[in-house]
Write a structure and sequence with these properties.
Elements (H helix, E strand, L loop, with lengths): L1 H40 L3 E3 L2 E9 L2 E12 L8 E12 L10 E17 L13 H7 L9 E19 L4 E13 L6 E17 L2 E18 L4 E11 L2 E12 L2 E9 L5 H5 L3 H4 L7 E16 L6 E14 L7 E12 L8 E11 L2 E10 L6 E11 L3 H4 L5 E16 H5 L7 E15 L2 E13 L3 E11 L2 E10 L1 H7 L3 E9 L2 E2 L35 E14 L2 E13 L2 E11 L2 E10 L7 E12 H7 L1 H6 L6 E2 L1 E11 L12 E8 L2 E3 L3 H9 L9 E2 L2 E8 L2 E11 L2 E10 L4 E8 L11 E8 L4 E5 L1 H13 L9 H21 L1
Parallel strand pairs: 5-6, 24-26, 25-26
Antiparallel strand pairs: 1-3, 2-3, 3-4, 4-5, 6-7, 7-8, 8-9, 9-10, 10-11, 11-12, 12-13, 13-14, 14-15, 15-16, 16-17, 17-18, 18-19, 19-20, 20-21, 21-22, 22-23, 23-24, 26-27, 27-28, 28-29, 29-30, 30-32, 31-34, 32-33, 33-36, 34-35, 36-37, 37-38, 38-39, 39-40, 40-41
Helix pairs in contact: 11-12
């Protein structure tokens, strides 16, 4: 017995040792396989930080885990991360590791993963990273070299998965955050029962700019009968919770040759008005359990038919609310008289047959009634819109019906407007067939929120007509800032309904506008790193984007504008906004002690790096102020810090901008010139060194005579053409370059004054190197000594010496040169 136990113990020990040792034997093979298969299939950047193998974690299967996995796109998405995963684990049949017939995967575990799917305006998706079949076929030289991976999945586990889908062509966006899910079933068989459980605290969906779901909480527990051969999935027992709404779905969906067939019905017997209100994020987040409601509500939906790229199934979503109300017990008033009848339906076929009806949407807020009705037909081909809105919203009453925190709101909105007609009437300028009349008036609006400047709009009026939308009588005060607008917009219906170009003329004026109040202070924290995702500019960045469907002619009259450290006064000129670009036409302003006139363009269309390409005509700009207020000057011309006086000139610059609207210095290109007549030097280090060499301390702080130089900015350096720098009686002729790294690379000559000892030296070669903080000035001492000796001997030997005297002259010069060197 003891011997048997001993043998069993040894056997178990050997097995455990093998389970610990074997992974190291196969780890290299699996890592090679993953990278090999990935490179065969993908046309993208694919890599991972580590690959680990365990025979114990999912015994008797082997676990293969990829850590810090990422997949980046190609082409237009070269710097865009499609997938970034903290950990991906696959359970592989242990026996399949010992053969060459393939590897069976039975379980996949995904943790801490982010997926970002994007469709550009031209329809190009960022997930199209698979190589063409012809490419993959050429890689596989023989069947013996391939190691196919077979998916016989029985369980999929997901933890902390975030997925976003941004379809810019269709104007649709969806996102799921922090998803937890498990999916089990035998996907290696022909038929199986799939058990799915999932939960996410945040589900967002919007289309056409309309948010249908905004950070809604979703839970689902579903059983699906899967016919994997025919690709048909039948919904059985299931329960779904969307915020407070509980519902279930009956029916089936099947993949077909030409699309997806379906017959699905939404069952919402438990839905009440309170549950419907839970879909409004602001209400669901504020004391929802204490909310008192009344009234009848129903929500039904079905879809039946085939969904293809060009065809919709028959579907209908209907919401009805009758005589409903809600009120917070702690507040003095509520919202009552709520009646809603809304449907979205399509008989099947063309999506253009979809019809949206809201008739009515009525409510009374703290005694003020409001009514809205709308019908939209043929939404894709030629939107046919009928809409009316009438009523008064007393913004000061909102605090009586909804618990506002750290916020006060006052003012009234009065609406009385109606629209009826087709978008084509506007496009064809058939304004007589279009009805658009009425106005929306805002009076006495005041908004105060914590950490945000107070907003005050005394009066603003939108007036509607078929041709245009007029914005008048509008002055907005934000903190100490004020902006007055007088504008007219054309094609406003096309802009709202189809996203076509909004045209307009705007007159913008202001007495004080501090742009720093509208730029987040934390954007500077991200500016030390270059942006890595060029396809989607982060909304948290400081980049000012220019919509491409706006065509504005703006006349600016701004008395004072503050931006960063700059102060601009009397800003006047024309700004043409079109195709994602602001074109400046003779935009003039006073700044830095002088004046500037700008002509050029700032372009920042969606998903592109912003760029400034403009020319500036500068007059009487202060050197010291330019250094203090402009980061570009601090990096390209730090010498300005030691100069006193003003300069005038021209600058033409082409500069890509980073996320903080600052130039990407290494890529700045430009040229220009500057001149000055009142320049003074003060503690310029390389001038100080020259002064020490020529024993002239007064040069360290001395007025400079006329200076005129031309320069070129290229590849992170400022290159100057030869120019004269007159320091009293001394003249330096310099040319060369300075760099972003503060390095100096100048060569030139210094001409010493005539008369006295200076006349003995004449013109001497010199170099300036090192950096602005530690310059290195070099003077050709041999040339200096030779010039001095030649000048001294002129009186002794003479310029017209005879042949016999030439050797004597050279000997005297050599002796003088040696003597000068010894003294030095």
């Amino acid at each position: 017995m003891k011997k048997a136990l001993k043998i069993a113990g040894i056997t178990v020990g050997v097995i455990l040792i093998l389970l610990l040792v074997l992974p190291f034997a196969f780890q290299g093979k699996i890592e090679q396989l993953v990278k090999q298969e990935g490179n065969k299939m993908l046309n993208a950047q694919f890599d991972f930080g580590a690959l680990n193998i365990s025979l114990l974690r999912n015994f008797p299967s082997a676990s293969v885990t990829l850590e810090d996995f990422y997949l980046k796109g190609a082409g237009a998405f070269e710097n865009d991360t499609l997938i970034q995963a903290g950990e991906l684990t696959a359970a592989v049949n242990l026996l399949s590791l010992f053969g060459d017939s393939g590897y069976d995967i039975s379980k996949i575990i995904i943790e801490d993963t982010k997926v970002k799917a994007i469709v550009l305006e031209n329809g190009q998706p960022n997930w199209d990273v698979m190589k063409a079949s012809a490419e993959t076929d050429t890689v596989q030289e023989s069947p013996a070299e391939s190691s196919p991976i077979r998916i016989k999945l029985k369980k999929l586990s997901v933890k902390d998965l975030s997925v976003s889908y941004d379809d810019r062509q269709a104007g649709m966006y969806a996102a799921i955050e922090n998803l937890k899910a498990t999916c089990s079933g035998d996907f290696g068989s022909e038929r199986t029962l799939v058990d799915l459980e999932l939960e996410t605290p945040s589900l967002t969906y919007r289309t056409g700019g309309v948010p249908f779901l905004n950070h809604a909480a979703l839970k689902a527990d579903m059983n699906v009968a899967a016919d994997l051969v025919n690709k048909k999935f039948t919904l059985q027992d299931n329960s779904i919770s969307l915020n407070a709404i509980k519902l279930n779905i009956d029916g089936w969906a099947a993949m077909q040759k030409d699309g997806m067939g379906m017959d699905i019905k939404l069952n919402t017997n438990e839905v009440g008005f309170k549950e419907l209100l839970s879909l409004i994020p602001a209400i669901y987040a504020k004391d929802f359990q204490d909310l008192k409601t009344d009234g009848k509500a129903s929500l039904t939906a079905f879809a039946k038919g085939t969904l293809t790229q060009d065809q919709m199934p028959q579907f209908e979503v209907a919401l009805n609310v009758e005589n409903a109300m809600f009120r917070y017990p702690s507040l003095p008033a509520g919202v009552d008289g709520i009646n809603i009848s809304a449907t979205v339906k399509n008989p099947g076929g063309n999506i253009d047959a979809t019809e949206v009806t809201i008739s009515p949407f009525d409510f009374t807020l703290a005694g003020n009634p409001f009514s809205l009705k709308a019908i939209v037909k043929t939404p894709t081909s030629d939107p046919d819109l009928q809409a009316t809105a009438k009523g008064t919203l007393d913004l000061g009453k909102i605090k009586d019906v909804y618990p506002l925190e750290d916020m006060s709101l006052n003012g009234t909105i009065q609406a009385d407007m109606s629209l009826a007609g087709r978008l084509s009437y506007i496009e064809k300028e058939q304004y007589g067939q279009m009805k658009a009349e009425g106005s929306i008036r805002l009076n006495g609006m005041k908004l105060n929120m914590k950490d945000i400047p107070a907003v005050d709009i005394q009066r603003s009026t939108f007036t509607f007509s078929p041709r245009y939308l007029q914005l008048s009588e509008t002055t907005v005060n934000i903190g100490n800032n004020d902006v007055t607008l007088d504008s007219r917009f054309e094609n406003y219906l096309g802009y709202v309904l189809k996203g076509s170009t909004l045209k307009g003329n705007l007159n913008v004026s202001s007495n004080h506008l501090n742009l720093n109040d509208f730029i987040s202070s934390d954007t500077t924290a991200v500016q030390t790193q270059a942006p890595t995702d060029t396809t989607a500019a982060s909304s948290s960045s400081g980049v000012i984007r220019i919509p491409e469907n706006i065509d504005f002619n703006m006349q600016a009259n701004l008395k004072e504008v503050l931006f960063d450290k700059m102060k601009l006064e009397n800003v006047n000129g024309t700004l043409l906004v079109k195709n994602g670009t602001i074109d400046m036409r003779n935009l003039s302003f006073n700044t830095m002690g002088g004046s500037i006139t700008a002509n050029g363009a700032y372009s920042a269309p969606k998903a592109s790096q912003p760029r400034l390409n403009a020319g500036f005509d500068m007059k009487d700009i202060g050197f010291a102020q330019a250094y203090q207020e402009l980061g570009l000057v601090q990096q390209l011309a730090p010498i300005f810090s030691g100069l006193k006086g003003n300069f005038s000139g021209k600058l033409q610059i082409d500069a890509p901008l980073d996320e903080n609207m600052s130039p990407v210095m290494q890529k700045v290109q430009g040229s220009g010139n500057l001149s000055t007549q009142d320049l003074s030097l003060s503690d310029v280090k390389f001038i100080n060194q020259v002064a020490d060499i020529v024993k002239k301390p007064s040069m360290k702080d001395i007025p400079v005579k006329d200076l005129d130089l031309s320069f070129e900015i290229k590849d992170g350096r400022v290159n100057t053409e030869p120019f004269d720098l007159k320091l009293g009686d001394y003249t330096m002729n310099l040319s060369g370059s300075t760099g972003l790294d503060q390095t100096i690379d100048y060569t030139g000559k210094i001409t010493l004054p005539s008369g006295g000892i200076g006349s003995a030296f004449g013109t001497v070669d010199m170099t300036i190197g090192g950096t602005f903080t530690s310059p290195q000035v070099g003077i050709d001492m041999a040339s200096l000594a030779k010039n001095a000796a030649e000048q001294a001997l002129k009186g002794i030997v003479g310029n017209d010496s005879k042949e016999g005297e030439s050797e004597e002259k050279e000997s005297v010069i050599d002796k003088a040169l040696n003597l000068f060197k010894k003294k030095k």
